[in-house]
Amino acid sequence: MTVANPVNKILRSTNGQSLVELTLIVPLMLLMVYGVIEVGSIISTYLTLTHTTREGANLASRGTDPSDALAAVIAAAAPTIRNDNLGQWKIIYTKIVPAPPPAPPCIAAPCDYVVEEQLTKGSLGENSKLGPVGTTVNTKLDPLDEVAPNQKFHSVEVFYDYGPNVMTFVGTNMNKLFYDRTIFTNVSAIN
């Protein structure tokens, strides 16, 4: 009869192996779950901003008062954009019209256009990439050669600082300032 060595018995035992494996795997699984949540939140925020710019420019191009259009898209973009996080976002409506005289009349595209009007909501410290009122914007509206001459345009730009929403390591290596812009030609007979 052979006597089993107690040390060998302990080393060969599988009791508790699953518990040790679980202890090692759970933190990694939690990190992955938080990462998936973070990526989902980033995608949701980006889609909200894209939808906001499209709807705002669409409403303004159809003759809705720009202030009303911005109020409607801000309400629709909640909870990403709301009144208690004004320092985290800025929405800029811009009306772009053909350059007034003494600019030569435009016969063929591309024409010279200027920023005629701007309306801003939110208090994030960013400025319109189209420029302030009076700025010539012909090179910033690609592809203008595909648009009929003397059109009016309505642009909505959204800046959003995602930084305060970062929950995990996923957001630390990315640009946290999101930007989106949509430009519609005027489809309203009254503007």
Q: What do you see in this structure?
A:
It is a single chain. 33% of the residues lie in helices and 20% in strands. It has 191 residues and is α+β, with helices and mostly antiparallel strands. The protein has one domain (16-185). A four-stranded antiparallel beta sheet has the order 2-1-3-4.
- What is the straight-line distance between the termini? 103 Å
Number of strands: 4
Number of domains: 1
Compute the average pLDDT: 84
Q: Tell me about the biggest sheet?
A: 4 strands, antiparallel
Count helical runs: 3
- Quick one: overall form? elongated
Q: Radius of gyration in whole Å, from Cα?
A: 28 Å
Uncertain spans: none
- Please write the string of helix (H) and strand (E) elements: HHHEEEE
Give the amount of beta strand, in percent: 15-25%
Share in helix: 25-40%
Structural class by secondary-structure content = alpha+beta
Order of strands across the widest beta sheet?
2-1-3-4
